[in-house]
Amino acid sequence: MAPSAAKPKLKVLLCSPRGFCAGVVRAIDSVERALAVYGPPVYVRHEIVHNRFVVESLRAKGAVFVEELSEIPDTAAPVVFSAHGVARSVPAEAEGRKLFVLDATCPLVTKVHREAEIHFRRGCQIVLVGHAGHPEVIGTMGQLPAGAVSLVETLADAAALVPKDPGKLAYVTQTTLSVDDTAAIVEHLTSRFPAIVGPHKEDICYATTNRQDAVKRVAPVVDAMIVVGAPNSSNSQRLKEVAERAGCRRAVLLQRASEIGWGDFGAIGSLGITAGASAPEILVEEIIGAFAARYDVSVETVSAAEEAVFFPLPRPLREKQAAE
Ligand code: SF4
What is the mean pLDDT of residues 151-163? Predict the structure, then answer.
């Protein structure tokens, strides 16, 4: 290998916070703890978090991933619901089949479910700002009867919305949206329907907000930006968009170092790196390592916020822990 002096210099600006949020840590810990306490198999409905590396690691330890409960045989083994949350029909089906459920839905997603429910009980039509097909959106819409929730994905959807009664309207949002896009959509809804009721504090979670803030600081001052995360991870996709909008000409979403397209990173002198809330730090390190093999890398951290959020494990696991 060439001596490091021969390598081009590369300044890496590492966004902080990045990677795992408290909801993801709780979800992964729930599966790991269930495997330790009850032994394999532990069934997991949907990818516990949207990251292939995490899913494969848990699979290797005995987790069995399914998309629907119908794929699970009648069993006493635990069934973990993913961090994204589920429609009401899912726990109802599990109860009917007497499955042992460990609900790893992020408490911040559950909070949105409860908000939607309260608005509905007060007679409101609910507008959900979110992305169609995302499991969190399916779960939130599934808290209420069909037709009670209208999905708004874009400003155009907000402009086209025809509510049954504009005086009885409330909105909630997906937790992992772009802060700026959502603010524009909410502003539009509020200007069209001044009586619309919303959350006291927005539904976009602290982790999404903080990771986007860090990217906004780094993206304008680097030649390229890498977001470590999966293509089906909503918050990771949003980080890439935020980087582009903040002025970064080359922003890419990568799952692992093996996906780096070196042609994209030829003559760069600075590189920003962040990671979606479901991407483990080991993958960030792997990518920095790959750059260090080709560049003379110096790393600096750019911090937008300190995080100290912690969510306790689902109750059955806490009780098991207390009994030990
Ligand atoms: S991104 Fe936010 S809502 Fe989603 S799991 Fe993490 S903390 Fe919870």
Answer: 97
Q: What is the pLDDT of residue 5?
A: 60
In this structure, the dihedral spanned by the alpha carbons of residues 256, 262, 268 and 274, taken in order and rounded to 10 degrees, is -10
Catalytic residue among 32, 47, 95, 136: 136
CA-proximal residue: ligand 1, atom 7 (nearest): 23
162-201 per-position pLDDT tens digit: 999 999 999 999 999 999 999 999 999 999 999 999 997 7
Closest CA to 78 of 320, 286, 304: 320
Atom 8 in ligand 1: which residue has the minimum CA distance? 23
3-state helix, strand, coil in the chain (%, to 5): 45, 20, 40
Q: Does residue 57 contact residue 2 with C-beta atoms inside 8 Å?
A: no
Backbone angles phi, psi at 112, to 5 degrees: -65, -40
Residue 12 near residue 268, CB atoms below 8 Å: no
Please choose, from the candidates 223, 274, 205, the residue with its C-alpha nearest in 3D space to the C-alpha of residue 24. 205
Ligand 1 site, CB within 6 A: 21-24, 83, 106, 108-109, 175-176, 205, 207-208, 235, 277
What H or E segment, with its residue span, contains residue 273?
strand 270-275
